[in-house]
Specification:
The chain is mainly α and 333 residues long. It has twelve helices and seven strands. The strands form three sheets. Strands 3-7-6 form a three-stranded antiparallel sheet. A hairpin with a 5-residue loop joins strand 6 (236-241) and strand 7 (247-254). The protein is globular and about 55 Å long. It starts with 6 loop residues before the first strand and ends in a 5-residue tail after the last helix.
């Protein structure tokens, strides 16, 4: 007969959940040295985020070691191999995943996150019920979305990618004969250049593919990560700043890990957690393909750093800034 009293789980004394119990997250905290920075990554976060530079490194090495990729001509202006000489289907810009997934990646990220936020029971009752956890999740999503817009779409004029390209000496080759002087040159974007039939060349182009694939997949992964802690018998320890100015270690675990990832939680709960996983997985695959067949290593590196900056603001700054944590919260808390 199973014991009815408290049981020890993952080293913490907890009450054994009944068959009808709902899933929830528990946390324990303890004071820590003031020299420990709340901005440091936990071991699981370090493992998760290290996947991205490793993926870029593996893709770049593959492009150097694979004979077909090494021998295929590369067009630095188009940042890709000419279609007639593409060493792989995924080296073509018109491949289906690039055309219908990467090009509208933030749509899929948004759809997956909304599904997780409103279908998975850990965030509250199913449906459009705005619980505090959901509201804070929406704020985190809004910050990431604003950064995506500013980098790739619009930043009080040209987006950051186009501004960086122009600052580093780039220009639209066709448009140069009718561009004026001074401020007028600043407002020519890559999209306007392409529409005019020009060539966007000469400057440093932050890899938009790397940026959006890293930002979207890492955002989803960081949000869903706490769901797997109890399932795998793990805890995630983070350092946060207290209101009295001190620091504490916060351990987050799931009280019922199996249900948290959808096992026994119904079809909607499973969709809520597996949809972000599928989108993040496809994003990782296309990141690997981008690393192997598109852009220079420096363009990929800057795309990675710009994405990591947004992740730092959304997930790590709130641990050190209490006022910010009160607004955006932390996943799993």
């Amino acid at each position: 007969m199973a014991p009815s009293g408290p049981v020890r789980r993952n080293g913490i004394l907890t009450s054994k959940p009944s068959a009808q119990s709902t899933s929830s997250m528990t946390r324990t905290s303890s004071p820590t040295s003031s020299t420990t920075s709340p901005l440091l990554l936990s071991s699981l976060e370090m493992l998760l985020l290290s996947v991205y530079p490793i993926t870029l490194l593996l893709g770049s090495l593959f492009s150097l070691l694979d004979p077909s990729a090494r021998k295929a001509p590369y067009n630095p202006v188009l940042q890709s191999h000419p279609p007639a000489y593409a060493p792989s289907y995924f080296a073509l810009k018109r491949n289906l995943l690039n055309a219908y997934f990467v090009k509208i990646n933030w749509f899929w990220v948004s759809l997956a996150y909304v599904a997780f936020l409103f279908l998975h029971k850990v965030n509250g009752p199913r449906g459009l019920v705005l619980t505090p956890r959901r509201l804070r999740g929406l704020v985190r999503y809004a910050i990431a979305t604003v950064w995506w817009i500013g980098v790739t779409q619009w930043l009080f004029g040209p987006p950051l990618i186009d501004r960086g390209f122009r600052i580093t000496g780039g220009a639209c080759e066709l448009a140069s004969h009718y561009e004026g002087s001074g401020g007028k040159r600043e407002f020519v974007t890559s999209q306007a250049c392409k529409i005019a039939g020009g060539t966007w060349k000469g400057g440093h182009d932050i890899s938009g593919h790397v940026f959006i694939l890293v930002l979207g997949s890492a955002f989803l992964a960081m949000e869903v990560l706490p769901m797997f802690l109890g399932k795998r018998g793990m805890r995630d320890e983070r350092v946060v700043k207290r209101r009295d100015g001190g620091f504490e270690r916060m351990e987050i675990e799931m009280s019922d890990g199996g249900d948290e990832i959808g096992e026994g939680g119904g079809i909607l709960s499973r969709i809520g957690v597996w949809m972000p996983i599928v989108v993040a997985g496809l994003s990782w695959w296309m990141l690997l393909m981008t690393a192997a067949y598109f852009h220079t290593w420096f363009e990929k590196l800057t795309g990675l750093l710009v994405a990591f900056f947004a992740l730092f603001v959304v997930f790590f700054m709130p641990r050190a800034i209490i006022a910010m944590r009160d607004i955006v919260g932390m996943p799993g808390v």
